[in-house]
Design brief:
Blueprint: H1 2-9, E1 11-14, H2 18-27, E2 29-30, E3 37-38, H3 44-52, E4 58-62, E5 65-68, E6 76-79, E7 84-85, E8 88-89, H4 100-128, H5 134-144, H6 151-169, H7 176-185, H8 189-205, H9 208-230
Antiparallel strand pairs: 1-6, 2-3, 4-5, 7-8
Length: about 230
Amino acid sequence: MEKEDCLKQRTASISVEPYLATYARKKFDIDPKTGGIKIPDKFNLYHAVWHAMAKWPLERWHIGVKRRVDNPQGNLLIHLPDCREGGIRKNPLYWNYISPRSARVINRELKRLFDWEFHHYVEILLEYHPDITKKEAIARFAKKYALGIDAEDALLKNFQRHEKAVRIFLGLKKNKTSENKVKSTGLSPTDLSAHNAPLLALATNSMLPQVINEGLRLLCESTKDKDDAKK
């Protein structure tokens, strides 16, 4: 009985978004004794859980009497890490409380991991398998982690937001002028940029001879000054 209590104390239950809980249970191994997910220490999520671990707080429910707060219920059971960081060790038998606020931080870190893998997975499939459509690539990812057919529409919107963010970051945001220009020429955006590349290079390099001549002039003057100083 004491052994079972110790195993229960080694875990913490938190609430995360349902699809993230499903993803985490498929992504990580399940400890056979505790039933919690075991997160490898190579993931930032592992260290986020370690930093979130705390001792159980006490609450006053009567004057002069304290009791431990109720055990929070969640949809994701975590096998707590037992490591030492910065010379500090948190024994999971005692540091096994994760507050709702810390659970939200873990949820955010887990979502960051999910989005990175999801976007990378779909991009690789689309790059090396031109015959696969975007929807088919998303469906493969949903099947891999048993997210269900209902999640595919949400994943498609997720990936579209990712593509839009990448375009904005790279300065490739679409506008009406460029769209009309593409329609009038009948070229794709990629072909259009390739068509204008020599003109852009010429405009950029139009001042290049003047810059080179100015550099040579300054070099000659500095050499002449050194010779005069030696004399």
